[in-house]
Amino acid sequence: MSNGSTVRLAFDEQGSGDPPLVLLHGFPLDRTMWHAQVAGLAGHARIIAPDLRGLGASPVHGPWSMDHYADDVVSILDALRIERAVIGGFSMGGYVTFAMWRRHRDRFAGMLLVDTRATADTDETRAKRREQVALVRERGAGPLADQQVTGLLGKTTRERNPAIVEAARTMMGRAPVDGIVGALEAMMARPDSTPELGTITVPTLIVVGDEDVITPPKESRAMQAQIPRAELALIGGAGHLAPMEKPAAFNAIVVDWLGRLRST
Ligand code: MLT
């Protein structure tokens, strides 16, 4: 199933090992958020980290929807002749992962859900996103980056690791305005994935920072309760951006789970 409008994405590819692990970034971030995973997990698996359309180095090319993002990722798998992979998504990347599950579930060897949620936007969130559309249209990505950075990073990181705070702010501040607006529209329009959770029959790992205030641990527990083969790992002292905030802990959890997934 394709929407007939896939675009050629920029992506990092490193390492070897089957099944490959695809890592999908969040909003308004890009594939460089996975730098420590590409470096640290490549000894354990073939890592593929794309920039979703309109973000990072991928073309700013609508239309924008979770289905388009999902089909773009499948076009990378096709180009690399990868039949099945573990599909991993962080936050908005998790929303893309659920769209892939709806449209291309035969491509999954497993699922990794990182600081994300299955539910759709509330009316309140949609209203906030409409304000963000107006903000970036008027003033560019910088003010949005300033607004997002506090919620994105945990209290511990904000107090003790200013370099990570600045790296996240810089990444968001360079996102193209049209790509940001496209992502906001895609998130506002996404459906509730809760009804599909019970159909996710592949091994699934859910990871969340215990200081995540954007997609708090209770969202992860709700997903774990409904996904038949889901494990849940909490990362202490990390907020929403757990893979960047605590890369060693995050990578160790994924390596352990991948090892068990391969032996099943
Ligand atoms: C993200 O990190 O991708 C965003 O916080 C997701 C969202 O705004 O729902």
Topology summary:
Blueprint: E1 11-14, E2 21-24, H1 35-41, E3 47-50, H2 66-79, E4 85-90, H3 92-104, E5 108-114, H4 123-139, H5 141-152, H6 155-160, H7 162-173, H8 177-189, E6 204-209, H9 217-226, E7 230-235, H10 242-245, H11 247-262
Parallel strand pairs: 2-3, 2-4, 4-5, 5-6, 6-7
Antiparallel strand pairs: 1-3
Helix pairs in contact: 1-11, 2-3, 4-5, 4-8, 5-7
Bound molecules: D-malate (MLT).
Uncertain segments are: none
Structural class: alpha/beta
Nearest-integer average pLDDT: 97
Sequence of secondary-structure elements: EEHEHEHEHHHHHEHEHH
Tally the beta strands. 7
Could you estimate the helical fraction of the residues in percent? 40-55%
- Ligands bound here? D-malate
Q: What's the main sheet like? A: 7 strands, mixed
What gyration radius follows from the Cα positions, in whole Å? Answer: 17 Å
The number of helices is: 11
